[in-house]
Amino acid sequence: MKPMATFQRVESQVRSYSRSFPKVFDKALGATIYDIDERAYTDFLAGCSTLNYGHNDPDLKAALIEYVSANGIAHGLDMFTDAKEHFLATFERLILKPRGMGHHVQFTGPTGANAVEAALKLARKVTGRTNVIAFTNGFHGVTLGALAATGNSKHRDGAATPLSGVSRAAYDGYFGADIDTADMLERQLSDPSSGFDAPAAIIVETVQGEGGLNAASAEWLGKVQAIARKHGALFIIDDIQAGCGRTGGFFSFDGMGLSPDIVTLAKSLSGMGLPLALTLIKPEFDIWKPAEHNGTFRGNNHAFVTAAAALDKFWADDQFQNAVARKAQYLAERLMAIADRHDLSIKGRGMMLGVDAGSGEQAEAICKACFAEGLIIETSGSFDEVVKVLAPLTISNEQFAAGLDVLEASFEAVLGSHRAAAE
Amino acid sequence: MKPMATFQRVESQVRSYSRSFPKVFDKALGATIYDIDERAYTDFLAGCSTLNYGHNDPDLKAALIEYVSANGIAHGLDMFTDAKEHFLATFERLILKPRGMGHHVQFTGPTGANAVEAALKLARKVTGRTNVIAFTNGFHGVTLGALAATGNSKHRDGAATPLSGVSRAAYDGYFGADIDTADMLERQLSDPSSGFDAPAAIIVETVQGEGGLNAASAEWLGKVQAIARKHGALFIIDDIQAGCGRTGGFFSFDGMGLSPDIVTLAKSLSGMGLPLALTLIKPEFDIWKPAEHNGTFRGNNHAFVTAAAALDKFWADDQFQNAVARKAQYLAERLMAIADRHDLSIKGRGMMLGVDAGSGEQAEAICKACFAEGLIIETSGSFDEVVKVLAPLTISNEQFAAGLDVLEASFEAVLGSHRAAAE
Amino acid sequence: MKPMATFQRVESQVRSYSRSFPKVFDKALGATIYDIDERAYTDFLAGCSTLNYGHNDPDLKAALIEYVSANGIAHGLDMFTDAKEHFLATFERLILKPRGMGHHVQFTGPTGANAVEAALKLARKVTGRTNVIAFTNGFHGVTLGALAATGNSKHRDGAATPLSGVSRAAYDGYFGADIDTADMLERQLSDPSSGFDAPAAIIVETVQGEGGLNAASAEWLGKVQAIARKHGALFIIDDIQAGCGRTGGFFSFDGMGLSPDIVTLAKSLSGMGLPLALTLIKPEFDIWKPAEHNGTFRGNNHAFVTAAAALDKFWADDQFQNAVARKAQYLAERLMAIADRHDLSIKGRGMMLGVDAGSGEQAEAICKACFAEGLIIETSGSFDEVVKVLAPLTISNEQFAAGLDVLEASFEAVLGSHRAAAE
Amino acid sequence: MKPMATFQRVESQVRSYSRSFPKVFDKALGATIYDIDERAYTDFLAGCSTLNYGHNDPDLKAALIEYVSANGIAHGLDMFTDAKEHFLATFERLILKPRGMGHHVQFTGPTGANAVEAALKLARKVTGRTNVIAFTNGFHGVTLGALAATGNSKHRDGAATPLSGVSRAAYDGYFGADIDTADMLERQLSDPSSGFDAPAAIIVETVQGEGGLNAASAEWLGKVQAIARKHGALFIIDDIQAGCGRTGGFFSFDGMGLSPDIVTLAKSLSGMGLPLALTLIKPEFDIWKPAEHNGTFRGNNHAFVTAAAALDKFWADDQFQNAVARKAQYLAERLMAIADRHDLSIKGRGMMLGVDAGSGEQAEAICKACFAEGLIIETSGSFDEVVKVLAPLTISNEQFAAGLDVLEASFEAVLGSHRAAAE
Questions:
Q1: Residue A79 to residue B18, Cβ atoms within 8 A
Q2: Per the entry, which co-factors are needed (chains A, B, C, D) (predicted)?
Q3: pTM (predicted TM-score)
Q4: At what angle do helices B397-422 and B319-342 cross, to 10 degrees?
Q5: Does the beta-carbon distance from A18 to B296 stay under 8 Å?
Q6: How far apart are CA B259 and CA A210, in angstroms?
Q7: Domain of C235?
Q8: Digit-coded pLDDT (tens) for B126-149
């Protein structure tokens, strides 16, 4: 096939998802994505949680087309634009104010990694310290500053140079249910001879999207926040994958009584998959000099337009949130049934849920079986052992159920046969 | 004014261009940008060379609207999509093949910094070395890996942690016309006791867009490439600001007889200001493991669509290139006249030209005077002393001339009065 | 007093022990040290375990005087000398061979820190990895490479630059008796996404001399060695303070069934307090190039002479070792009695034993009270809370008992009064 | 031979000088060193300038024996001792006061590298900056902090980890006589976009002992000092190899009108080759906290005794200095003659002089020829191309002349034949 040949010839070996899903796709709507042979696939990957509202939401699409048609500014560096103002005002009104958050909004280069880089730089500036505490299995991006905080060795090795400036702590539950890793961190930071330098920041995901869908408890997160405060460090929540509704609320930490000093957002923020990232900063820590952290595409106005439209459509009242909660409940029930059937365990929280398939090989086989049946789904975890459901939050109940049926059957097909082989 | 209040209240202090141009803009077409009071401004900033084809080029805009309307995939991670295939095939046909370049194309996170991070990581992987040679006044981005290669101290200080992994060499002409800085570099790398560790890469801009429009000669660049080869380092051209036609050819090094191992592109690549970045890699160095360098927005399909349209429109034959050459000639004449009149010198190459105004204060005053007359223009250089013309390459002759008239008058207004004050 | 004025005027503020013991000393013999007013002090500091055989042992002294008198070479760079040969042959015969150790001996610059620097550099060379695992409360020296492995924040802050290349693990018992920190380390190193980079080495003290006399169990050390082996890291025992008989055997790990790849020695090695340090390396890891790690004073021949004499005198048979064991037993009984009396706990192993006085203030007050009574003794630990007995191993039973009487009385004087104050 | 077998079997491969001089030495007096077969060698290596007063100077030896015999304290940590007081008072009276230097004296671990580590750490503490400027071909030691400042790639590679915290500048004359490298450094530091971070310190040797006997002019050093002052950096002279009389005065910068903020000394300081190192610090920069930089052997009292005796003997009046000047003059004449004869050039200053033999191979052959004739001499330089004369400053005129005769003949033997071979 000609398109395949182009990719083989011209694209870098670094490509990855195209290896799991070796089709050429061209159109997408809602939870469905189509290949050039017009076959439809249900999308349980959703751009790794970038398409929480599905593909090409009609209202977002309409807003974008209207804006472009009217010669709205596409690229504005960080100049004031109407579209940016509208996004900021909407974000303030629907997201920040209702939560009592007075954070400033920094538009960074439009990648999550860039938002993390900005967060870490700022925390170091504010505190005059260089050490950052990050957690086992954390994923924060692959540019050198963010990568130092990322746990995954494949990505770390990609730096091909030592990564520094980060001390590693154990995530909630890392050493089992009986060991409180927050207490361990407190012990280390309180001991002046522990070798843990006083931190500029503690950066944490509430659910580790790449690291295996480990979900921290509100209590543990509260302890970590308190530790940060006590030791003069900024408390940063990287909400890039878990935020924007994925776990239920707009922020993954909604309702937990937390008050992070910095929050990073990206992925589903623009609502339509357009590149957009931001770093929320408590005003007292917004000590940036003009342009000290900059970037060409920090004014992606198309994304401002769709992002504002998404906020207006989904976050103006509780309806969407309630619907997501119901879907999450349903998802949990379905995955629990699968897990029970195969003596496995489920991982995650909200609509960010998966099943630990026991090994990377089994998880891969399951995902492959799903794809054969028209379901796009991927793995997560240290050994890629967790089959991860990241369906669009807007998926219809019917399509969701059908997709989960495929998933269930794939577990059966793979683990049934595995068991048979073992017996 | 309400919009201003929103920015004051909600946006981070890090914003910069909005300080120079304190208006709220909403629409733009070609070389003109409009504020919400419908005042028109001529844009000699062009998104810092991101809008080489002007704002909202009608053909690009039409291609985008058509694509979106048809539910084309917006966000595709790094899966195969029709839009990506079309871009790759077009890029290969119109750009790579005619130049005999067999480079692979890596889609990185859609920021120039990310393309640079990928380039430096890969060079370190390929060579097993960690040191990178970068140049005085170079600018490569502000994420930690790219920032280490960037020369600007304001940006470097923003890291708030020491930057490592880069040795600094002097750019062409840095120590005056009589000193060959390439020879100096060769001397240092050939001396096993010089303290310059064997480099993984030498990264260079052919014209330093942020660093003061210093333009390297083809001869010097050739020497630097030869030094890289001799010492086992990859030769990387960062063509993010100078590429995509800004200096005349598609690549800023067209016609120089160079063969860079890696090239980074971003800014004007998408043609319409949409975030897109890529790293071109000679196949023998494309040793990435799948996903080793990844990023959520590396499949920005809207940008693929407009980028392919831009290549088709502007680079299928010589017309555009010839027109740019004529405009560059005209620009040089106009700036030369200004420089002569005020005993100043001009900097840069092609449509990336400026006048060293003697000091940052004078340059700022000139830009301010321009803005009052409806011309958006910015500075560059170690002391922001160069008034930099980055007009859209597609600007009409009339608008170009009128803009340069404003510029000329502003020099007169500021430097005339300065001289008067001095006398 | 004139001498004091000289120090005040000329010596750097960095001096420390002279603040605890503000007298000018001039002579010393065995376990006694004299000030210039001829007052005698019992030395329970012993040069921080550098004078395990006491001051000016008559046989060592005689050997040195004889050597100097005969114009023996004092300084030999790393040329072959008779004195070095004699030391090497003796060390091989009495120390290495009986233990079945085939290690090569590297003479580094004559400081413990330098031996550690050599060990870490070599482990990185051997493995091609840069990360080193070091432990909470570890102390390995204050030059930049060794300091990165050191836990103490006062010393770390002295670098005034971030320290890198070390991941921190928890020492035996760090999180209490119920948590096996070796299992934790194994978990982290086996998890490819833990953020612990594959280590070049694990470096450990069997007893943490500066870190509070924490003593690792043989079982835990065996586990750590096995972890190092499993993960391709070199296992380094830093035996600088605990070695040379301090804990009973020549090496602190004698009889534990361990086989460290690298061992560092210094402090008491020369037997008389002369600067000498070495790094023992298993032959298969001795891949140094000639002079790759060098240093002017790595051939301190005076120290070779006394070191060989010390080995001959104390380590040719079991007598010394048995005597040390008896003294250690006595010491443990005496300190246990003190600890019981004040509801405190004892720390350490062998003749490297102390009492956790509950706080740094109390420990300091106790040491001060001792000094007033002619006993020199110091503290250790994260908060300097451990009163540490490091008497010469050769101290007479009578002087040892008398010194411990003073110590006991000082605990009584300080903690009695503290309790009285609290009541 | 038995001793050789011991070294082969037990000593690490890192040994180096023993490869050039494969004999076992046992005694030494003045400028003569003897092997165990009683063959005498003239020592033009002098412990790499550690034995400026020759081997076993009778007065120093007597002082040491007397001190040891009387049970003088050998090892005193950093407690006040009579021997230290005597050294400090003598150093102040004979060295500091006459030069109007009010520097404090820090006793570091007794290696030059350790003195450099202390200097760099302190400069970073004082300035709050991390970057240090060091020069091409500089040598400052091989522990990680000092090694970062060292230029030699063999030593740098030994770290097996990237070295950071140092920017490299070109030494006096590095780019030829016509290029003022101090002006280049000033240009780079004055340019906020040069990529040279504001430095904590500039560290320089006045003559590069290991780097090829490059000698900086007083004018250039004065410029560098002024640059340091202007840019808020401490000016550090590493006088470890060039100091203690080697270039004529006690400090190598005597009479140059310089006022370094920090000076490091080691090598010949103890006068007899015993390990001793110190860091001289202007009082206003002596902001160390107690023990912030420490080390077990910083109180090597034997070395204090011989160091004070050496100062008294050689530096109480001008006699020694004048004699050294005469010898240096004679040396220059002899080497000039050799250089002229073979169309070579001489390098260095004072009694730290050599001949650039054209290549490392030739230099090695010459040294080998010398050794065959009983002369110990070594090379220096990026390619080990400089034959370096480091005779004891106290060598008799007769022995000096005879040694130089051997050197002259060896040049003839090697370069004569080389030329013959070439013809």
A1: yes
A2: pyridoxal 5'-phosphate
A3: 0.97
A4: 20
A5: no
A6: 38
A7: 72-314
A8: 999 999 999 999 999 999 999 999
